[in-house]
Amino acid sequence: MKIVKKIEEVKSYIKAWKTEGDTVGFVLTMGYLHEGHQSLINRAAENDRIVVSIFVNPMQFGPKEDLASYPRDLDRDSKLCEENGVDLIFYPEPEEMYAPDFCSYVDMSVLTEELCGQSRPVHFRGVCTVVSKLFNIVTPDRAYFGEKDAQQLAIIRRMVRDLNFNVEIIGCPIIREKDGLAKSSRNTYLSKEERKAALVLSRSIEHGKKILQQGERNAAVLIDAMKDYIATEPLARIDYLKAVDAFSMQPVDELKGATLVAMAVFIGKTRLIDNFVFENNI
Ligand code: PAF
Q1: Among 104, 119, 177, 269, which is least packed, fewest CB within 10 Å?
Q2: For a pocket test of ligand 1, which of 60, 128, 153 has the largest count of ligand atoms closer than 8 A to its C-beta?
Q3: Residue 244 phi, psi dihedral angles, 5° rounding
Q4: What is the mean pLDDT of the chain?
Q5: Which residues are catalytic?
């Protein structure tokens, strides 16, 4: 497995592989890899070559967010990658990705306006820009993203369609701890007490699904019931909890077509996200 820091070096490996006729699967990450990333890497094994990028992208963090404290551990990450058949890790420094006079951005309207886009105004511009750059550097046949970041996945699918990127986007299911907490690099921020409290996210999802199973289709009724459930946990503070159309990310009144029920909840200072998609088939 190669660990490569320079864009031109990545390009030359990819060129050599493509000349041989190999397909390339790409898993884009910010590192501190966990079983969620591992499931993406394992899925990417359907390609001849697997590339993983590890880059904590400064552009997608707001000024008061956790860029400086975001967990990093290349040794641990490389071990996981090596054990899971990764061919190349792209591990650039910020200076390699962003020239001092960098001034080109990829931005999107509509899909970025709700949910995380409301509480993190610069986030998706940073994501779209870095994902575009990484796609241009790696030119993968397929790229793999987790459904935990459901809004990010919908945005990347739309960006690929709108801007004609030549890559197939593959969404992979949320991986959870045994007790239900969705795997996230940010779970490492939680104290023991907060880790327990964080279960309120996945439990509120189970609560919401039960309400839907009973036949409720009114979004406000569902969301209020889930909010009430979360309010029973004193360490939890809701950032947002909404039902939106799964493709346009626009709020819905009734759950008719595919609907994303998504939340961001602070547990202490740690902001966690979770979601489920309701397709009228629970
Ligand atoms: O989901 C992430 O880890 C990041 O947003 C991504 C896609 C790697 C872009 O920095």
Answers
A1: 104
A2: 60
A3: -130, 155
A4: 97
A5: 37
pTM over cut 0.70: yes
- 3-state SS string for the chain: CEEECCHHHHHHHHHHHHHCCCCEEEEEECCCCCHHHHHHHHHHCCCCEEEEEECCCHHHCCCCCCCCCCCCCHHHHHHHHHHCCCCEEECCCHHHHCCCCCCCCCCCCHHHCCCHHHHCCCHHHHHHHHHHHHHHHHCCCEEEEEHHHHHHHHHHHHHHHHCCCCCEEEEECCCECCCCCECCHHHHHCCHHHHHHCHHHHHHHHHHHHHHHCCCCEHHHHHHHHHHHHHCCCCEEEEEEEEEECCCCCECCECCCCEEEEEEEEECCEEEEEEEEECCCC
The atom of ligand 1 lying closest to the CA of 56 is 10
pLDDT of 77: 98
What's the rounded Cα separation, in Å, for the pair 60 and 149? 14
Ligand 1 touching residue 28 (CB < 6 A) = yes
At 58, which amino acid appears? P
User: Locate tokens 């998706």: which residue?
Assistant: 124
Distances (CA, A) of 213 to 9, 88, 224, 236, 251: 53, 45, 16, 26, 21
Per residue in 189-214, pLDDT (tens digit) is 999 999 999 999 999 999 999 999 99
| Inter-axis angle of helices 74-83 and 35-44, nearest 10 | 40
Q: Is the pLDDT of residue 282 over 60?
A: no
98-146 confidence digits (pLDDT tens): 999 999 999 999 999 999 999 999 999 999 999 999 999 999 999 999 9
Query: Which positions ≥6 away from 129 have C-beta within 8 Å?
Result: 59, 104, 105, 106, 107
